[in-house]
C-alpha cells in the first residue's frame, strides 16, 4: 500500500522562496508510483495543501490532516523542506513528535540547537571541534566596539545568530562599519554572533544516514567571486562549487572525522550540511544546516550526484530512514 507523504515547504523566514523551490524539487523527483505525495505550504497566515492545479485546501492543525469529503487524509511521514523557522528551528519537529508523525529531519532539540550558531559551537567545543573566535550580542545590549574588535580582530563577520542563506551577514573591515553591520543583523534576529575572519579553503560537508550508517558525501569546495559566500554567491551564480573538493588527503580525513563526530555526538538523523574553513590541515566549523537546500543546483544534491545517488533515491532514503 502506498504511503502518504506530506512535503512541507515555505516557512516564516526570508528563506521561504528557496524552500518552495526545494519542496517542489522533492515533489517532482520522488517516485509517485511508490508514494502519494502532497505539497503543503506552511506560512504564518495559512497552512494549506496545494494540488497540481494550485487549488488550496486548509490543513486541520489539530492532527495535521487534509479534510476531504467528510473524511481526512493523514500522513505516514512528513518530508521537511522548510529552511529557517519553523522547519529548521525545532518548532515543526516538536509539533510532529507530539502528534506521533514521522518526519525526515532531526528531533526538535537537535534542530533548535543547530539553528542557534552560538549554542551549537559552545556544545561542540568540549569535543574538540574548532571554531573562529566569537563575540555575542542580544538586542538591547551595549555595543562596546573596542571590546568586540579586541576579541575577534578585523576583518570580522557580523551574523544573525539564527538565520540561513547568508541573510543578515556582513563582512566588516573597519571599526566604523561595525554599527551598521550589527543593525543589519538585527533585522533578521534578536541575537548576533560576531566572528573573526578565517582565511583558508572553505568546504561544505553533507552527512546523512544510509541504511542506518552515518555517511559523509563527497565534499564540496566553495570558491566565491564575492568577498565571501553570501546570498549572491549561493544563489545567483557568483561562486564555483567544486565537488570533490581540491583538498589534501589529511584535510579530507580530518574534516570527515569532524563531520561524523558532530553528527553522531548530536545524535542527528536526516540530512545535514556543515560548513568548514581549513586553517592548515585543521577544519574550523562555521555552522550546520539540518534542512539544506534541495534544488538541483544546491550543494547536497550535487554531492549526491557525485556519489552516484539519484535525487529521487536520495529523497526516498530520507523517508525510509524516518519510517524505520
Automatic annotation (TrEMBL):
**Keyword entries, A-Z:** ATP-binding, Cell shape, Cell wall biogenesis/degradation, Cytoplasm, Ligase, Nucleotide-binding, Peptidoglycan synthesis
| UniProt subcellular location | Cytoplasm
Main location (coarse class): cytoplasm
Q: Which Gene3D superfamilies match?
A: 3.40.50.20, ATP-grasp fold, A domain, ATP-grasp fold, B domain
Q: Indicate yes or no for the key word Cell cycle.
A: no
Q: Which HAMAP family match?
A: Dala_Dala_lig (MF_00047)
Identify its protein family. Answer: Belongs to the D-alanine--D-alanine ligase family.
Pfam families in the record, alphabetically? Answer: Dala_Dala_lig_C (PF07478), Dala_Dala_lig_N (PF01820)
Swiss-Prot/TrEMBL GO biological process terms: cell wall organization; peptidoglycan biosynthetic process; regulation of cell shape
Q: Would I find Cell wall biogenesis/degradation among this entry's keywords?
A: yes
Residues forming the ATP-grasp domain are: 121-320
- Which species is listed as the source? marine sediment metagenome
GO function terms (MF aspect): ATP binding; D-alanine-D-alanine ligase activity; metal ion binding
Q: Which GO terms describe its cellular component?
A: cytoplasm
Q: What is this protein called?
A: ATP-grasp domain-containing protein
